[in-house]
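Give me the fold.
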Amino acid sequence: MKKIYFDNVATTKTNKEVLKTYKELLDNYYCNSDALYDGGVEIYNMLEKSRENIARLLKVEKEEIIFTSGASEANSTAIKGLCLKNQNKKHIISSIYEHSSVHNALKQLEDEFGYDITYLKPNEFGVIEVKDVENNLRQDTILVSIMLVNNEIGAINNIDEIKKIVKKHPGTYFHSDITQGVGKIDIDFKDIDLASFSAHKIHGLKGSGVLVKKKHVELLPLINGGQQEFGVRGGTSNALVDIVLAKTLRITLENKDNDNKIIKELNKYFKERIKEIPEIKINLENSIDNLINISTPIKSEVLLNALNNQGIMVSSKSTCGSKKNELNRALKAIGVDEDYAIRVSFDHENTKEEIDYFITCLKENIKRYG
């Protein structure tokens, strides 16, 4: 049975060129990148070249690229590292529907360190209002953290306008989880103090990510160790995955326009076909093109299992919370019953034929279970 993968916001298939390069590196490079003999120096130089290339692609400084194990670590490092370094101001503004790595970092600061968190709710279009950020800024606001694209409903926040508002308040920093926007949306890092993303969302390797930390931002290290990552993140560098991240990002950005054109066409076709099923509701019309969240008359758990048996992989919530009985904060915020919602997310390698099969299976399952 052919497998159809419609869960690309959870993770993506590794690019063949990236995988080939990584395997070649594994075969030939095993030294510690901090070692002073030739083998270690060679890997260190490749690592720093990767950092330089990523910085060039993002139009930031080389010293502003911090390698991490992924966006979750980058988010935690940015938020807790900044706030614990600057405990003279204890107010934070964020959204109610941030990724769990942001939400739980904020909850820890709130519960264990006495921070006051303002959780903004999205409007009816799933977007955080810029004026809500502005109206909640205070003298003791140390941080505003608003994601670029929500990973559950695909809402796109106007971080360009939000960062301008934050910039008017000296001593307040702006952080954004840009994970779902890299390769989909043009991102201007000017006036963004901290930003996080993962390689595996853009056809890279799991266990690889970046924290963009501007040079004026000071963080308290959460992982103490040696000299690695400018003293922000200690421990032996996972050099090979960090080396291929530069290639991953370059390929993603080079192919962005063409890949997004294909995804936009798939989005349009999916919405046309889904109209054939009156029982289906699209939960957010103005979402990013590669993500569509829909409600059905079937319990999501039942439908996911049925589709899985038919070779179709979709999800009902963020993978980070899939095995926990946690409320879906994004769906709740826009008034959608999560028990009947599923998330469908495309990649440029998906096809209209796969959508046709999905629609056929959806009709069959609604007839059988609905």
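The radius of gyration is 21 Å.
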